[in-house]
Every structure is written in C-alpha cells, then in structure tokens.
Amino acid sequence: QQQVKQSPQSLIVQKGGISIINCAYENTAFDYFPWYQQFPGKGPALLIAIRPDVSEKKEGRFTISFNKSAKQFSLHIMDSQPGDSATYFCAASNLGLSQGAQKLVFGQGTRLTINP
Amino acid sequence: SQTIHQWPATLVQPVGSPLSLECTVEGTSNPNLYWYRQAAGRGLQLLFYSVGIGQISSEVPQNLSASRPQDRQFILSSKKLLLSDSGFYLCAWTPLELDNSPLHFGNGTRLTVT
Question: For A97, phi and psi rounded to 5 degrees?
C-alpha cells in the first residue's frame, strides 16, 4: 500500500511535443505529490508539487494533473525541449503523519529523451 | 544560502570492506537529514532519516547504519560491504519546519562493490 507505480520506464518525444508521465498510488492517506527531475550525475531536484485539494497545477510548461478518485496523477511537459531530457520521479507522502520528517515514497522513475 | 556536500562522488570497494559516506549541510540549523539509495529501475529508497543529533530512524533493515554526530553532519556506514550494497547513495535535507518544503539532495555517491 506504500507503493507508487510510475510509467512508462522510458519515453522518447520529439522536440515541441507533449511528454506525459503517469503515476498511481494506493494509500489514500497520501496528501502531497511532488515531481522531481534528475540530470545525470546529479541529485534530484523538485520540479512541481500538488496537494489533493486541487485537480491541476501549472508552472510554465509543466503541469500536474491529479485524479483523487482514481488515485492517479500525471506530469505533462508541453513544448518539450532537449534540455528537458532527464529522469523524472513522482513521489507521495503523508505530511500529516510525517512527525517532523518528509518520508517520500518514490516511483521507479522515467527516463525522458527529447529528440531535436 | 544553504548547500549540501556529499563525498566522495565515486567509490569502488571490495566485498567485506567497511564503508563511510559523509554528508554535511551548510547555511541552516537543525535540518532533517536523509539517506536515500537509488537503484536502476527501482526509484529512490529511503534508508535512514534523522530529526536531530543522535536521532536515527531506519526505514529498511539491511547491512547499513547511519549516525549524526553533529547537527549538520550525517554519516552512512557499513562494517562489511555486500555486492548488493552497490548503488547511488543520496543525502538530502529539509528544514526543521516542513511546510511542504522540498527535499534538497546532494549530488550523490556512486558506490560499486566488487
């Protein structure tokens, strides 16, 4: 019940296209859903995050869509650019039960390649 | 500004040898500290976290241990490495007061056990 399942494992998109990565969770107590972006040889960095009280959050070309009833959320990258090529991780946690620490459960990651 | 340092960047160790990875955070006090391991195709797995000096919580029982001897220092150790300990180890921190604050990761240590 603590798992977050992410798909696809890898994704190739043409420059200017839309990249879509999906995640599903089972624990209904999760109340915080971030996406992290990781470049080779670097640690992940927060890209965008959403709480379950909204169905969508947009920051520039990046949008999170959240479906609470289906227990799914997805990342959409509009007008994908070669610089977006990276590994993306979805994650989830219950901030209310964190007891002072953010115990994120991460998905398996998606390696995104944007072809020029 | 806050920065997190993690070293070494890469490490090759034989099976049965000890391990010590160090992580330090600058520019903040009383951070929450974390050790994650990243294995290919398996995402990031939380190994240990600490909310204060000497306070260590283990998430996954295994051949590793963690210690926090100082407020901004977090150490990952092993007495005898196994082949299965190979992976990419990431240290991270969050402020004491979470408030949706993101995890700030270091650049990781690539450990290969031979």
Answer: -110, 15
Q: Distance between CA B103 and CA A96 in Å, rounded?
A: 16
- Tens digits of residue pLDDT in B13-23: 999 999 999 99
* Contact state of A49 with B100 under an 8 Å Cβ cutoff: yes
E strands, chain A, in order: 4-7, 10-14, 19-25, 33-38, 45-50, 56-59, 62-67, 72-77, 86-92, 105-106, 110-115
Asked if B19 reaches chain A (Cβ–Cβ under 8 Å), the answer is: no
Smallest CA–CA distance from B49 into chain A, residue:
A101
pLDDT digits (tens, 9 = 90+) for B30-72: 999 999 999 876 789 999 999 999 999 988 867 899 999 999 9
Cα nearest neighbour of A34 on chain B: B102
